[in-house]
Write a structure and sequence with these properties.
It comes from Geobacter pickeringii. The chain is mainly alpha-helical. It has helices at residues 10-34, 39-66, 74-100, 108-129, 135-166, 170-204. The chain has a single domain, classed as Methane Monooxygenase Hydroxylase, Chain G, domain 1 (Up-down Bundle). Helix 1 (10-34) runs antiparallel to helix 4 and helix 5 packs antiparallel against helix 6 (170-204). It is elongated. Mean pLDDT is 91; it is low at 1-7.
């Protein structure tokens, strides 16, 4: 099925562009937390990346609506586009939380979660790069995404547990709990995209 009609390979190009854009957003989020000098400027750059992601998603859906034959199931194309869009939305939402809650300094756990998000996005980008190629390569990157999501779960759980043990200010506790959970949800969205890619592999193998 892959590479069935040359003109339909545009979907692969668009998905690759979309996943590269998401990785750029994740890189900017990690940089934002590693060098917290001007978080507002960092957040604006991430928002620009999120807007680019919206435009690519729109283009994919438009092309899907106009295409008679697609390189894989229409439902999977739509689901993958939506899952990738959710990834950059959660990266943007994470950055916004640091501005909205006037965070003075990111915690070590927040930085660790941002790094896991970047690694997860890179793994999804690598999986997407093999669309139209060898299925087994897609599968191995999806396994990596699943492992990273489990690691993010662990970091988030331990961070929230420590928060309840050590934080005396209830407002700060509420703020940081939401920040950790938003960061962790970004890795959940990466896993959603990986699961859809695995489904595509199974259906087209």
């Amino acid at each position: 099925m892959f590479g069935l009609i040359p003109k339909e390979e545009k979907f692969f190009t668009m998905f690759k562009e979309m996943s590269a854009n998401i990785t750029e957003g994740a890189r900017l989020l990690k940089e934002m937390l590693d060098n917290f000098d001007d978080p507002q400027a960092s957040q604006r750059r991430i928002k620009d990346v999120e807007h680019r992601g919206d435009a690519i998603t729109h283009d994919i859906i438009q092309k899907l609506n106009k295409s008679f034959i697609t390189p894989f199931d229409r439902e999977d194309i739509y689901s993958l586009a939506s899952a990738l869009d959710d990834m950059i939305d959660l990266i943007d939402a994470s950055a916004i939380r640091f501005i909205m809650y006037n965070v003075e300094k990111p915690t070590a756990e927040a930085k660790e979660l941002a790094f896991i998000i970047l690694q997860s996005c890179q793994a999804v980008e690598k999986a997407v790069s093999h669309l139209g190629g060898k299925f087994e390569h897609i599968a191995e990157h999806c396994v990596e995404v699943n492992a990273l999501e489990n690691e993010a779960d662990r970091v988030c759980r331990e961070a929230i547990s420590r928060l309840f043990d050590e934080e005396k200010d209830p407002i700060q506790l509420i703020k940081w709990k939401e920040i950790y959970e938003t960061l962790e949800r970004a890795t959940d969205k990466c896993e959603d995209a990986a699961n859809i890619l695995e489904s595509v592999v199974v259906k087209n193998a």
